Amino acid sequence: MKITLGHIADEEYYAVSEQGIRVNIDMLAADEKKAMSPMQLLLSGVVSCAAVDLVAMVKKRRKTIVEFSGEIEGIRRDEIPKKFTEINIVYHFVSPDLQEEEAQKLVNLAVEKYCSVASSLDPSIKMSHGVKITRP
Description:
The protein is an alpha+beta fold. It folds into two domains: 3-32, no CATH class; 38-134, K homology (KH) domain (GMP Synthetase, Chain A, domain 3), CATH 3.30.300.20. The chain contains three helices and six strands; from the N terminus they run βββαββααβ. A hairpin with a 4-residue loop joins strand 2 and strand 3 (22-26). Helix 1 crosses helix 2. 17% of the residues are buried.
């Protein structure tokens, strides 16, 4: 896997995958943001990577997914490097037949065993992950 980085302006970059897919990245102030920051992209990678396996496992169990989404929050330390010290994930399902206990087991598997992005993070980061189910 290879990514090429390009420079747009001060604190603005873009990354291009081997397939030519481009993502803009910036470190601009909140009121000037045009793109995600590298740390936001990292969180996006974790929540989406685990989601792929999670949805596949739920469907393999022949459960109905009416809607699905996820939220991830990273807490960073104040000192440089301002790395994450905690990451908290919650996946939301709207499903008539998915049970919370089963869903939590699948979330655990998706994040802890199958997600390559989460597995690539510093093991000192405290990770929590949960699920919320709403009936349609």
